[in-house]
Design brief:
By secondary structure, the chain is an alpha+beta fold. The protein is built from 14 helices and 20 strands.
Length: 505
């Protein structure tokens, strides 16, 4: 691994000489669909084919020129306390990124990067929707050396800020969790990631093929299949058997796709800790190496589906104060344990938060009165859907009403399991029944409190206390729901008193 130059006399540095190629490929990917449409549909009619090809060549030449100019005008300098980045030819920009403000470091390698021996480095801070700096691309050893430098300088700044907090230092390169191939396959088998591929295929087919062609193909194939089957005059049990085989085959296809996606994403998953900084490396074709300081973790979420619970597995996720990608690309460290035993997840939380007692010894339950509010949408929507189904298909449409008992059972069991825990250091909530979850955060990481009462809450005499942390995301909110009004106000006042006295970390 190469070593960066001395911090007090660091000269300006450039990107890798082949960086313009990767920038061009990234830009070409954005213009790929318009270029293909130009070449395919631009030659129709009386137009000369030469103009279509000439336009495409001009666009590619402009992209190459822009990529080369970006390479020539991009410079960065490693200072004592920050990284300085200069870019732009006409409009020149200069950004100073302090090491102490870098929340997340991402080293990204796709197959083409690995072929050239380079990597893409991204530096992220809190609150931004884009990285503070994107270095496309650096030599792999240079990117790893810069990542190590950010770790060291950020750790020194963290020690200065948290000098009053006594936390034992973690051993160097301590492996906290490592998943083998069998563990990754288990992730795929216990998840429903295959639906992503199925839905993407349907969406792509409707985009690529003419309107109505997909529906006509499905309708024609269904008629042919049912017409052939009707000539055989099968018995009822044969129809049932064929339906079961088709459902089982579709389920197996989803499992296979889920396993493939899990291998692409989590192959070689390794969670390590070095100088109070966590690093995750994973990926089969595209290798992703992300790291974050422990003090940047804002909230924690444990989840388990019914299938995972039967196999004694859970999923541990964190929220960090770094920007969330807007283009759907996985850029930051979010998963500490994609799949692990409950004991391993609890041990990991206890190791990273030694000052907390997890899991809590006691949970405060939520009163059961008003449990029906959780199934209120189903009570309003399902009868309307059933009426429409009966109008269209006859009495068999009333089968839709079978969803109501299940919705009522799920609402009752969900309310029975809801609870919260509050002490001098952290607050935690739990919920769910079929799919269970736990979410908690340190009181030092809270940024805002809100006491909320809806019209239904005023009728039932309940309130909810909403908590917010930096980088909060996901479908689970840190909220103490449906508490009695007096209890909710008491919890709000207690949290508010602790909130104003503590220093935001």
């Amino acid at each position: 691994m190469s070593t960066p130059p001395p911090l007090d006399a660091a000269p300006d540095q450039r990107l890798h000489p082949w960086s313009w190629l990767f920038v061009m490929l990234m830009q070409l990917r954005q213009f790929l669909l318009p270029l293909v449409a130009l070449l395919v549909f631009g030659n129709r009619g009386d137009r000369d084919e030469m103009w279509s090809y000439l336009t495409a060549l001009i666009v590619i030449a402009v992209l190459v020129a822009v990529s080369i100019l970006q390479y020539l005008t991009f410079h960065y300098r490693i200072g004592r306390d920050a990284i300085s980045v200069r870019s732009g030819l006409v409009s020149r920009n200069r950004r100073e990124i302090p090491f102490a403000r870098i929340h997340n470091v991402v080293v990204h390698q796709n197959p083409l990067h690995r072929l050239f021996g380079v990597a893409e480095l991204r530096l992220e801070s809190a609150g931004g929707h884009r990285p503070e700096a994107e270095m496309r691309v650096l030599r792999l050893d240079q990117a790893l050396a810069l990542e190590q430098l950010v770790r060291q300088r950020g750790q020194q700044a963290a020690l200065l800020e948290d000098a009053a907090v006594e936390t034992p230092a973690a051993p160097a390169d301590d492996v906290l969790l490592q998943l083998g191939t069998a563990d990754v396959i288990r992730i795929g088998l216990l998840s429903n990631r295959g639906w992503v591929v199925v839905l993407a295929m349907f969406g792509a087919s409707y985009q690529l093929f003419p309107r109505g062609a997909v529906n006509d193909a499905i309708e024609y194939g269904g008629r042919q299949a049912f017409g052939y089957a009707s000539h055989l005059h099968p018995a009822t049990w044969v129809w049932v058997l064929v339906a079961l085989v088709m459902v089982a085959g579709f389920w197996m296809m989803l499992r296979v796709l889920s396993v493939v996606l899990a291998l692409l994403r989590y192959h070689g998953f390794r969670l390590t800790e070095h100088e109070r900084r966590l690093t995750v490396a994973s990926g089969l074709l595209t290798r992703m190496r992300t790291s974050v300081a422990r003090r940047r973790i804002q909230a924690w979420t444990l989840r388990e589906t019914a299938l995972q619970r039967w196999f004694q597995r859970r999923h541990l996720r964190i929220d960090i104060a770094a920007g969330v990608s807007t283009d759907g690309e996985r850029r930051d460290l979010r998963e500490l344990a994609p799949l692990a035993t409950p004991q391993a997840c609890d041990a990991l939380v206890q190791h990273l938060l030694p000052q907390l007692q997890w899991p809590p010894a006691q949970w405060h339950a939520v009163p059961q009165r008003g449990w029906w509010r959780l199934c209120l949408p189903a009570l309003l929507i399902v009868p309307l859907l059933a009426a429409g189904a009966v109008w269209e298909v006859g009495p068999w449409g009333a089968v839709v009403l079978a969803w109501l008992p299940w919705s009522a059972l799920r609402a009752h069991r969900t309310m029975a399991r809801m609870g919260y825990h509050l002490d001098a250091r952290y607050v935690a909530v739990r919920g769910g029944w079929w799919q269970r979850w736990w979410r908690f955060a340190e009181l030092d990481k809270l940024q805002s409190l809100r006491l909320s009462r809806s019209p239904l809450d005023r009728w039932l005499g309940t309130s909810s206390v909403w908590l917010d942390t930096a980088g909060a995301g996901g479908s689970i909110a840190l909220c103490l729901r449906y508490l009695p009004e007096q209890e909710a106000r008491a919890v709000f006042e207690r949290l508010n008193a602790a909130f104003v006295k503590r220093r935001l970390r």
